[in-house]
Amino acid sequence: TDGNIADHWVLAARVSLRLWEQVYDRSAERKLRITEQVDRALKLSQGSIAARTTQMRAQAFFGGDEESVRMAKEILREDPNNREALQRMLLAHRANGEDAEANIYRARLRKLPGGDPISMLFDTLRLANRGKMFEAEKSFEELFALSPTRIVYNLRIELLKDYFLDPKGAVEFVARIPEQFRTEDAIAGHIANAYISAGRGEDAVALLKRVPRDYLSEFAFNIPKGLLAGLAHEVAAQPAAAALEWRAALALVEKRLAADSADLMLLANKAQLQAVLGQKSAALETLRLRNELGGKENPIAQMHQIRVLVRSGKAQEAVDYLVREWAGARISRRCFLVRDLAFLPEYASFRKEKRVAAMIAEHQAFVQKARAAPSQSP
Q1: How would residue 1 be classed by pLDDT, with cut points 50, 70 and 90?
Q2: Exposed, middle or buried by CB within 10 Å (0-12, 13-18, 19+), for 256?
Q3: What one-character-per-residue DSSP string does 55-93 give?
Q4: Of 9, 67, 3, 5, which is closest to residue 33 (Cα–Cα)?
Q5: pTM of whole model > 0.85?
Q6: Backbone φ and ψ of 268, nearest 5°
Q7: The pLDDT of residue 372 is above 90
Q8: Which conformational region is residue 359 in: left (phi greater than 0), alpha (psi within -120 to 50 degrees), or beta?
Q9: Is there a contact between 307 and 275 (Cβ–Cβ < 8 Å)?
Q10: What's the 3-state SS for 287-305?
Q11: Distance (Å, whole) CA 25 – CA 28
C-alpha cells in the first residue's frame, strides 16, 4: 500500500538524517536527497505523523528553527507523547535560554516509557556549554540514575575534566567506571588526560598500554594513542620513552597522510608531534599548512595551536593568540582552553605569564561559583 511505501521513504530519510547529524556526509547531494526522501513520504501519506516528524527534524537540521518548532507544536496537538516533537521543544527552549519552559518538556519526556536518556544527555551538555554547571550536575545525576550506560560514564568524566576543571574529581570517578569501558577510545582518552593533568603519568601509561587500538577515534577524540602516551611518559619523567612513543605516532600519522594529504586533523596531530619532538620549524610549517587549508578554530584546534606555538619557542605569539581568542570565546570554549593550560605540566612556565594567569584564575573562579549554586549566566 501507499502507506507502507511512505514508511520506506521515512526510513530512508531518517538514515540520511543520521548520516548528516553524525557528520559522515554533509554534502549538498545528501541534503538534496533528504529533502527528496521527505517529500516523497509526505506525498504518499500527508497525514503520517512519522513523515511529518521526519520533516520537522530535517527543518531543524537545515536552519529552519522557527518552522520546526511550529511543526512540533502541531504534532503534539495530535500526539501529545510524540517523543521527537517533545525533544524538539526541549532543545528549542533550552537554546533560547527559556529554562522554565525547557524543564516542562524535559519532565514530559521523563514520564515516557523508559524516560529519554538521549535527550537528558544532550540537555546536560547544553547546560554545561552555557556555564550552568550546577544545573548540569543535577541533570547528570538524573541521567545516571536512569541510564548508567557507557556514553553516560563518558559524559561524567568529560564534565569533570573539561567543564568543571576538576581532574582530581575525574581521577576519583575512574574507580566507578566498569572495567570493560575503560579501554574504549573516548573514555580511555579522557582518563589518560585526567591522569596526566593530575600528575599521574605512570597511571596513564599503564592504562594506555591496555588500549588495543593505536589511534583513538571516537566522539571528540581523534588522535594517535602515542601522542597521549608520550605526554604521560613525559609527566612520569621518562623522556626517552616519551620520544619513542611520539616517533612511532608520527610515523603512523604520516602513513595516514600519504592516503589523504589534506586531512586537517591528521595535519594538526602531525604538527603537535613534530613540536613535542623538538622539530620546531617543521611543526610551524605543518600548522601553517593546516590553517591555510581551512582548519576551523574550534576549542580542540585552539589547544593544538597553542601547544605547537609553546613547544616551538613562540610563547609570546601563543599568549597573543590566546588573548585574541579569549575575548570572543563562549563559556564552553574557555573551559576547553583552561582545562589544559591550568593543569598540564608542559604549560607550567606559560601559565605564569600575567595575562594567561589572570584568564585562568578568572575562569576557574567562575566555574567554582557556577558549580556551587544555580547559575545566573544566560
Answers
A1: very low
A2: middle
A3: HHHHHHHTT-HHHHHHHHHHHHHH-TT-HHHHHHHHHHH
A4: 9
A5: yes
A6: -65, -40
A7: yes
A8: alpha
A9: yes
A10: HHHHHHCCCCCCHHHHHHH
A11: 9
Sequence-distant (≥ 6) Cβ neighbours of residue 291 within 8 angstroms: none
Nearest to 54 by CA among 68, 33, 43, 74: 68
Which of these, 96, 95, 73, 98, lies nearest to 84 by C-alpha position? 73
Convert the pLDDT of each residue in 245-287 to its tens digit: 999 999 999 999 999 999 999 999 999 999 999 999 999 999 9
Whole-number Å distance between alpha carbons of 269 and 136: 31
For the chain, the straight-line distance linking the first and the last C-alpha, in angstroms and rounded, comes to 50
How far, in Å, CA of 25 to CA of 16, rounded?
A: 8
Q: How many CA atoms lie within 13 A of 326 on its CB side?
A: 19
Can you list the positions of beta strands (E) in 12-158?
A: none
Q: Which residues sit opposite 215 in a β-bridge?
A: 224
Please report how many Cα atoms fall inside a 13 Å half-sphere around the Cα of residue 205, on the Cβ side: 17
Q: What is the torsional sign of CA 269, 273, 275, 280? A: negative
Q: What is the DSSP string of 255-292?
A: HHHHH-TT-HHHHHHHHHHHHHTT-HHHHHHHHHHHHH
pLDDT tens string 177-216: 999 999 999 999 999 999 999 999 999 999 999 999 999 9
Which amino acid belongs to residue 53? T
Of 196, 126, 119, give the one whose Cα is nearest residue 161.
196
* Strand residue runs (E) in the chain: 215-218, 221-224
Residue reference for cell 529533502? 35
At 87-112, the pLDDT tens digits run 999 999 999 999 999 999 999 999 99
180 is written with which cell numbers?
570493560
